[in-house]
Structures are given as structure tokens and as C-alpha cells.
Amino acid sequence: MGKLKVIYNRIYNDFLMPSRLKEYEKIIKKSIESGYEHITFKDYYKKLVNNQLDNKRYFLNRHDIDTDLRTAKKFFEIEKKYGVKATYYFRLSTLDFKFMKEINSYGSEVGYHFEEIAQYCKDNHIKSATEAMLNIDKIKEIFIKNIQNLEKKLGFKIETVASHGDFVNRKLGIINNEITNDKELRKKVGILIESYDKKLMDSFDIYISDKQYPIFYTPINIFDAIGKYNIICMLTHPRQWEVNVFVNISDNLKRIWEGIKW
User: Fold this and answer.
1) Is the pTM higher than 0.70?
2) Which residues are within 8 A (CB) of 142 and not within 5 positions of it... i.e. 6 or more apart?
3) Which pLDDT tens digit goes with each residue over 247-262?
4) In this structure, are residues 240 and 60 in contact, taking their beta carbons and an 8 Å threshold?
5) CB 112 within 8 A of CB 118
6) Where are the domains of the chain?
7) CATH classification of 20-261, choosing from 3.40.50, 2.60.40, 3.30.1380, 3.20.20?
8) Using CA atoms, how far apart are residues 170 and 243, in angstroms rounded to an integer?
9) Engineering a disulfide at 205: which of 143, 172, 231, 254 sits with its beta carbon 3.0 to 4.6 angstroms away?
10) Do the bridges between strand 109-114 and strand 193-194 make them parallel or antiparallel, or are there none, so unpaired?
């Protein structure tokens, strides 16, 4: 794909694309009509390890709230309309405690979308994976402090987490879940799973992620998966479903500035 086409697609996705929330509602409706139980990551994992899946159809709806709380709240309203549950992973930059408490009270799940390795490297101008790993113990302590502070403010336990992929991770070739590879840390903090754990991922019949216009879904369209696969995990990001001009401009400028400072 040519550079001009890539630029156009990004501009369209961020500033011109019509809302896709009606499409999201159609996904919920079709999955319900096809007999799927919408389940949170923590509840699904507990069934998985206790051999309680019972050959039922499950739909795990994972929302990574990288940006745009407004659209995240619209996801939630659609889910409440149909009485389904989902899992929301919040970054430190997208925390909304009132909203997070509402999600938890409803019966959906609030998790932590963590990025401590990337953030530490940006804050300390670390430009190599080797240097990052030399500081991994400090980074783990920051992670522990962050998640414990979140739980204190929320008033409930965070049981699952999801690694966020930052441009720094891609540049250094190191992923944030190097932190959660530490079993003792998980035990200390009380983390059941990280969303990319092999046992969890291997249990899905298919894992589908949303993508930027014009692809929308990978590896296949979600509508083609519903009814064909019994256990579906779908990853969504608010940015791919509705344009929020101010938020997208702000996030793009932040990314540029972080790149300059780093």
C-alpha cells in the first residue's frame, strides 16, 4: 500500500469515518441469537481451569480503552441494553473511576491495561531492550504500586490485566508483559491472568481484533465467525468504532511529542 493511501486511511479513520456503533449493536444481537453467552475474562478463566465450560458457546468481548472514554461509554450502554457482559482494560491515561465503578457494579469487568516498561523507557530515555531489562525490578515495583493504588481508589480487586503495545515496545522489541511473566509478582498482586496468556489464548476457537479502516477486522470478519466458532474472543478499541476528533488530535500530538522527547 502506498504512503499516500496509508495517510488517507488514517485521516479517514480518525476524522471522517461514520460511526460504526450500529454495527457493534448488530454483533451483540447476532451473537445472542446464535446462542452465545457473553462472559468476562475472569469468569471465563475460572470456568476454563475448573473444566466448567460444558461445550457452551462463549463470546468474550475485550475493550482496550487506549483513548476515547466517550465511545467506551457508548459500548457500555449497548451492552446494558442487551444484558451482556464485557471486559474493559483501562490505561492510566484513560482512568474514569465513576465509569469503572459503574462497569463493576453492573457485573462486567474492569482490568488494567498496563505499559510500565514502555513508560519507564520513555521517562528515562532508555533506547535498548538490554537496558530496559536491567531496570526490570524497578519497573515491577512501579507496576505493583500502580495496580494497588487503582484497587484502593476503586474499592474492588483487579483480577486480570492486559499488556498495552506502545511505539517504544515496537522500537525496542520488548513487550510490557515481561512484567507479568513473573509468577511470584502475579501471586503477590493477585492477578489471575494476563490477556495474552497461552493457556487462555489457546482455549479460544478464534481471536478477532478490530483494525483501522478499511480492514476493520482481522483475521476474519466477526460476522463470519459468529455461529461458526463456539468460543470467540473479540478485541475492540473505541477509536476504530467512532470518530472523536478532539481526542484523536490530542493522542496524535502526544505520540509525536513523546517520540521527540524520547
Assistant:
1) yes
2) 116, 120
3) 999 999 999 999 999 9
4) no
5) no
6) 20-261
7) 3.20.20
8) 25
9) 231
10) unpaired
Which one, of 12, 25, 66, lies nearest residue 238 by Cα?
Answer: 66
Q: Which residues contact 167 (CB under 8 A, 6 or more apart)?
A: 255, 258, 259
In angstroms, the CA 87 to CA 90 distance is 10
Query: What are 76-133's pLDDT values in tens digits?
Result: 999 999 999 999 999 999 999 999 999 999 999 999 999 999 999 999 999 999 999 9
Position of cell 474472543? 233
Rounded Cα distance, 213 and 251, in Å: 18
Residues linked to residue 218 through DSSP beta bridges, in sequence order: 209
Task: Name 136's Cβ contacts closer than 8 Å, sequence gap at least 6.
Answer: 117, 178, 179
